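seq as requested:
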Amino acid sequence: MQKLAPITRKVLRAQDAAEYLGISVSTLRSLAQTRLPSFSVSAGRKVWLVSDLDNYLSQCSGRAITDVPANPWDKILADRQAQISQNLQG
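struct tokens:
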């Protein structure tokens, strides 16, 4: 029997969206009134797009949220290049 690929959820309900952001459901609902878009999929059922949650996290943190983990060597290389540049300047 062939296995199907797991489904990646594109929307989350309030409880899951709050957990995804690490906040309470009441805080999520407050944010939904001002800063975090949501939409209704049926009467009384709001959902949040995972991409909107990621965008919100990016805005709060000031950096991009990606599925690909950062390469630790990139930071080491950038730090080393900055150190060399400082040494050359004086």
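The beta strands are 11-12, 39-42, 45-49.
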